[in-house]
């Protein structure tokens, strides 16, 4: 799943269209707007296709896919970018595509200072929490590019409850924890109870349930 598709580059009032295709990768725009898309993130394969604006404007897509796991920090990554485009005295890097990088950490001409810390922390996270963490970030409008990743993980762990087949199943679990007689449970309206729960204290997405902050 790809991170970005370049359609055009503006220069003042003039816009140049770019029909060029990048090698070996798809270019479907990636957004964290569904569980299915989030499932396709593989942090260990986080990669960026690095070209330059000068080459692109001259009709060349010369560049290379650089795997972020091969670099310890942003400075080392940019050193590799400069070595790749050493034929230019002062190359203006153009990140023409990317894969397996959470939304908000990269743009066409920009890479967040947080990106390597985020990728490292995410790589060390328990496998069962990676998916709900990204959903929580997206729905809670948390900014991975600016907020401290350790603080975000701590907040997430406080908010995350678990995965359920439905909101009604979660409501049934809460009722089971209440000391109600069995005959009362037979008449309990779980659907209505779930509706009330998720109008206030809880929210869910993709089967994951969270406390409302």
Provide a descriptive summary of the structure in words.
The structure is a single chain. With 213 residues, the protein is an alpha+beta fold. It has two domains: 8-125, no CATH class; 164-211, no CATH class. 36% of the residues lie in helices and 19% in strands. The protein has helices spanning 35-38, 53-57, 74-84, 115-124, 127-139, 149-159, 167-176, 182-186, 190-197; strands spanning 8-11, 14-17, 47-52, 64-67, 93-99, 106-107, 110-111, 160-163, 202-205, 208-211. The strands form four sheets. Strands 4-3-5 form a three-stranded antiparallel β-sheet. A three-stranded antiparallel β-sheet has the order 8-10-9. Mean pLDDT is 84; it is low at 1-19 and 26-34.
Order of helices and strands, N to C? EEHEHEHEEEHHHEHHHEE
Largest sheet: 3 strands, antiparallel
Q: Distance between termini? A: 31 Å
The share of residues in extended strands comes to 15-25%
The strand order across the widest sheet is 4-3-5
Radius of gyration: 22 Å
Number of domains: 2
Overall number of strands? 10
Regions with little confidence, pLDDT below 50 for 5+ residues: 1-19, 26-34
Quick overview of this protein structure:
The chain has 213 residues and is an alpha+beta fold. 36% of the residues lie in helices and 19% in strands.
Summary keywords:
213 residues; alpha+beta; 2 domains; 3-stranded antiparallel β-sheet; 9 helices; 10 strands; 36% helix; 19% strand; elongated; disordered N terminus
């Amino acid at each position: 799943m790809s991170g970005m598709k370049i359609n055009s580059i503006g220069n003042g009032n003039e816009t140049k269209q770019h029909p060029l295709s990048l090698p070996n990768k798809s270019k479907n725009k990636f957004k964290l707007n569904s569980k299915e898309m989030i499932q396709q993130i593989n942090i260990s394969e986080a990669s960026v296709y690095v070209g330059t604006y000068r080459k692109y404007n001259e009709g060349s897509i010369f560049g290379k896919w650089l795997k972020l796991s091969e670099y310890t920090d942003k400075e080392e990554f940019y050193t590799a970018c400069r070595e790749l485009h050493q034929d230019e005295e002062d190359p203006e890097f153009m990140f023409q595509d990317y894969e397996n990088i959470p939304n908000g950490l990269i743009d066409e001409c920009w890479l967040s200072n947080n990106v390597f810390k985020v990728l490292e922390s995410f790589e060390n996270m328990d496998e069962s929490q990676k998916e709900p963490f990204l959903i929580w970030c997206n729905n809670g409008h948390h900014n991975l590019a600016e907020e401290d990743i350790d603080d975000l993980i701590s907040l997430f762990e406080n908010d995350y409850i678990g995965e359920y087949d439905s909101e009604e199943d979660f409501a049934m679990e809460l009722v089971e924890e209440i000391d109600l007689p069995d005959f009362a449970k037979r008449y309990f309206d779980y659907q209505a109870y779930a509706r009330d729960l998720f109008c206030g204290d809880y929210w869910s997405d993709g089967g994951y349930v969270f406390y409302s902050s």
